[in-house]
């Protein structure tokens, strides 16, 4: 059986179009928060970050799109989240609700995000979690590195 040039060309074109269709449909599920470069070092001995000395504490810092929320989840683990609400990045900025230990967008959509569950939506209309940044903690030097 001989395969003709046109059959291969038709098959190749079909596979190419199928891939374009599949990958273009994934954009609907893309987090709407823009990706910006983050590479921040925090010295926990600095008085500005004294609040991060105890588990369950948090601070806000500049960086990311609209600031970063750093939360100390255990003695040797930190979590850093973008403060921009993924439901409406042009309007919403999350802040910590100390009663529930959730990050809440109290200005726009009222979405709530769990600080303990990687920024997952716990309530509200947001379909996406908070954008999380990677935290690397050097316990000996008391340096926290936040990056994406």
Describe it.
- The protein is built from 1 helix and 10 strands; from the N terminus they run αββββββββββ.
- By secondary structure, the protein is of the alpha+beta class.
- The chain has a single domain, classed as Rieske [2Fe-2S] iron-sulphur domain (Rieske Iron-sulfur Protein).
- The longest helix has 21 residues.
- About 11% of the residues have low confidence.
The first-to-last residue Cα distance is 53 Å
CATH domain fold name: Rieske Iron-sulfur Protein
Largest sheet: 6 strands, antiparallel
Give unreliable regions as ranges: 11-27
Number of helical elements: 1
SSE order: HEEEEEEEEEE
Query: Which geometry do the CA atoms define?
Result: globular
Spatial order of the strands forming the largest sheet? 1-10-9-4-3-2
Q: Report the CATH architecture.
A: 3-layer Sandwich
Helix content: 10-25%
Give the C-alpha Rg: 21 Å
| Rounded average pLDDT | 86
Number of domains: 1
Find the CATH superfamily.
Rieske [2Fe-2S] iron-sulphur domain
What is the CATH top level name?
Mainly Beta
Alpha-beta content class: alpha+beta
Strand element count:
10
Strand percentage: 25-35%
